Amino acid sequence: MGRLSAYNVELKGLKEKQASYQWTAGDEFFAIVEGEEVQKGKVNVDLTVTKASGSYVLSFSLNGFVIVTCDRCLDDMTLDIDTTGELKVRLGADFGEEGDVIIVPESDGSVNVAWYIYEFIALAIPIKHVHAPGKCNKGMMEKLDEYSSPDDPDAAADGNQAGDSRWDELKNMNFENDND
After folding, report:
1. Number of separate helices (H) and strands (E) present in the chain
2. pLDDT score for 23
3. What pLDDT digit, counting tens, does each position of 15-61 carry?
4. Distance, CA of 43 to CA of 24 (rounded, Å)
5. Which terminus of the chain has a smaller tally of CB atoms within 10 A, N or C?
6. Do the Cβ atoms of 23 and 6 come closer than 8 Å?
7. Left if phi > 0, otherwise alpha if psi is -120 to 50, otherwise beta: which for 28?
8. Any idea what DSSP says for residue 145?
9. What are the strands of the beta sheet with 96-98, ordered from one edge?
10. Strand residue runs (E) in the chain
11. Torsion over CA: 127, 132, 134, 140 (sign)
């Protein structure tokens, strides 16, 4: 965590009721964190730490973009990120979790938020990420069209697919149960 020490948030020495932090999570950040979902991007992170009766509320606001692989053509694509997240932290004897509260040793008095920032970014990425219609790699789309089933809604971007005659007989069959 030495290379991510810039993301340490001091809790124990917090004098005010509220403190603010700002970072930019760029390519270097993603390389150090080594998460699978995102390796490149630029996301601005605003953090507000609010001290409240024995605990701390960390409110994150993240805005920027990440580069991910298109599920359809496998080229890189840019996805906008605009999300928020919240952590509740309490000082205690050892590291741990109690429900949705993270416990940080009082002897440390700080929490490193780098991995939480990464998780908020990764959770903001849709499960399916594809280019807008017509923006996928043309060569890859031609190959995909060539080998795709006509019943696969994700197979072709333009909807023009050659049919596979092996399935034609099944399309004409009636599968309803006639137990009248």
Report:
1. 4, 8
2. 96
3. 778 899 999 999 999 999 988 888 899 999 999 999 988 789 999 99
4. 6
5. C
6. yes
7. alpha
8. H
9. 18-25, 40-52, 55-69, 76-92, 101-105, 96-98
10. 8-10, 18-25, 40-52, 55-69, 76-92, 96-98, 101-105, 110-112
11. negative
| Residue 65 · residue 42 · CB < 8 Å | yes
All residues at 6 or more sequence positions from 62 whose CB lies less than 8 Å from its CB, including other chains: 25, 43, 44, 45, 46, 81, 82, 83, 84, 85, 117, 120, 121, 124
Return the ∠ at Cα 45 (arms to 104 and 95), rounded to 5°.
10
Distance, in Å, from the CA atom of 157 to the CA atom of 71, rounded to the nearest integer, reads 12
Give the type of residue at 50: T
Which pair of structure tokens corresponds to residue 7?
Answer: 């993301």
Site of tokens 């017509």: 134
Can you tell me which residue has the tokens 């996301």? Answer: 43
CB-CB contact of 118 with 104 (8 Å): no
pLDDT tens figures, 152-179:
555 544 444 455 677 777 777 777 665 5
